[in-house]
Amino acid sequence: AFFANKVEHESKHCNSKGFQRPGSSTFDRVYTANQNCGHAYPTFLAMLWCAGLLCSQAPAAFAGLMYLFVRQKYFVGYLGERTQSTPGYLFGKRIILFLFLMSVAGILNYYLVFFFGSDFEMYIKTMTNAISPLLLIP
């Protein structure tokens, strides 16, 4: 809602109808940042659900909240100079990678239980609980 509100505000600020604003670099930055965030959220939601269902809910929820804050930082950084959005982008990639690895670990554990009867769920949960605070390191 914050992103859409910013796009609407910039659209009204340009005093024109529609979303085609030739020559408005501020509007272009806001609109592009909104589109980038909109394209990244489906991947994030898929990784969040898979990590939460297949591995552990608490670290997945923590990583999800961190991702939302990081995307906010990316969006606000994108409104300034383009180099200000780079830390938010890289941090978001790291969180998506963490959620992906959690999903893979959950899937591997399922197949280990199914084929070999070995359950490593407690080890995986302990590892993800221990690693998730490391996401706070920039």
TrEMBL record:
GO CC annotations, alphabetized: endoplasmic reticulum membrane; nuclear membrane
Entry keyword set: Endoplasmic reticulum, Leukotriene biosynthesis, Membrane, Nucleus, Transmembrane, Transmembrane helix
GO BP, one annotated term: leukotriene biosynthetic process
Cell compartments where the protein resides: Endoplasmic reticulum membrane; Nucleus membrane
Pfam families: MAPEG (PF01124)
Transmembrane regions listed in the UniProt entry: 46-70, 91-113
Molecular function, one GO term: leukotriene-C4 synthase activity
Endoplasmic reticulum in keyword set: yes
Membrane topology label: Multi-pass membrane protein
Top-level lineage group: Eukaryota
Stated role: Required for leukotriene biosynthesis by ALOX5 (5-lipoxygenase). Anchors ALOX5 to the membrane. Binds arachidonic acid, and could play an essential role in the transfer of arachidonic acid to ALOX5. Binds to MK-886, a compound that blocks the biosynthesis of leukotrienes.
Oligomeric form and interacting partners: Homotrimer. Interacts with LTC4S and ALOX5.
Protein name: Arachidonate 5-lipoxygenase-activating protein
Species, as recorded: Scopus umbretta (Hammerkop)
